[in-house]
Amino acid sequence: MPIETVYPAKDLINYVKQFDWSKQRRISFEYIMFAGINDTPSHVRELSRLLNGLKCRINLIRFSSHTRYTP
């Protein structure tokens, strides 16, 4: 993602880890998987490693293209 050059994901996750989340049930992360780009088991392991230590839920979303309906 272009915003990654300004705010690297690793830096954002390290920033999130600094907060006291003890009063929250858990944090949710949405991860969109694009076929052939970031959908391998190694990508998921890396994401899990990055989020290690956070009480969180990871929602893996498989991207599917669709055509826009125009009446």
Structure description:
- 27% of the residues lie in helices and 20% in strands.
- It is α+β, with helices and mostly antiparallel strands.
- Strands 1-2 form a two-stranded parallel sheet.
- Helix 2 links the parallel strand 1 and strand 2.
- The longest helix is centred in the middle third of the chain and has 10 residues.
Spatial shape: extended
Structural class: alpha+beta
Share in β-strands? 15-25%
User: What is the overall pLDDT average?
Assistant: 86
Proportion in helices: 25-40%
Which helices and strands occur, and which strands form pairs?
Layout: H1 9-17, E1 27-33, H2 41-50, E2 56-62
Parallel strand pairs: 1-2
Task: Summarize the entry for a quick read.
This protein is of the alpha+beta class. Helices cover 27% and strands 20% of the residues.
Write out key terms for the chains shown.
20% strand, alpha+beta, extended, 2 helices, two-stranded parallel sheet, 71 residues
